[in-house]
Amino acid sequence: MLIGAINSANGEANKVKNVTNGEWDAVPATARDYKKKGIKWVVIGDWNYGEGSSREHAALEPRHLGGLAIVTRSFARIHETNLKKQGMLPLTFSNPEDYDKIQPEDKVDLMCTQLAVGKPMTLRVHPKNGEVFDVQLSHTFNEGQIEWFKNGSALNTMAKAAKSKSS
């Protein structure tokens, strides 16, 4: 998962700083540690996120490891829908230049309660040194896809519907 992505903090692939202990480790190991500690995490990506990936696996793994959202300038075709099916939030910067405002050590809050068809969401950025600021994010969710997110995946939504029919 993301082992080939270059980290803007250090220019290296598969090496991220764990915010809980300050140590640098592989992306999957850090994600597993966050999941164990109940910390949801977000990927901030550039243009055409998901290009060249094994897209279904690239959508399943972040969800499995406790990810909440992938925020990018744009997504590769199909990958955005695969993320939705896995219960992830694929979001794009409403203003692509906002990508440059977020630094590797910034922390973010994603206002998930704002998720509604046709409405933007807010990403609140807490810079390591500086004032908190908000960034607007766009999405392409429809009502059914919002249910996928609420239920944790499309498969969970189908199982819930089947269970309610049999009750």
Tell me about this structure.
This protein is an alpha/beta fold. The protein is built from 5 helices and 8 strands, in the order E-E-H-E-H-E-H-E-E-E-E-H-H. The strands form 2 sheets. It has a 6-stranded mixed β-sheet with strand order 3-4-5-8-7-6. A two-stranded antiparallel ribbon has the order 1-2. Strand 7 and strand 8 form a beta hairpin. The protein starts with 15 loop residues before the first strand and ends with a helix.
Round the Cα radius of gyration to an integer and report it. 16 Å
Percent range for helical residues?
25-40%
Per DSSP, what share of the residues sits in E-state strands of 2 or more residues? 15-25%
Question: How many strand segments?
Answer: 8
Total domain units? 1
Compressed to H and E, one letter per element, the order equals EEHEHEHEEEEHH
How many distinct helices? 5
Low-confidence stretches: none
Quick check: average pLDDT?
A: 93
Estimated structural class: alpha/beta
Instruction: Please identify which CATH superfamily we are dealing with.
Output: Aconitase, domain 4
Major sheet characteristics: 6 strands, mixed
* Strands in their spatial order, largest beta sheet: 3-4-5-8-7-6
The CATH topology is what? Aconitase, domain 4
Shape: globular
* Top CATH class: Alpha Beta
Query: What's the CATH architecture?
Result: Alpha-Beta Barrel
N-to-C terminal Cα separation, in Å?
A: 38 Å
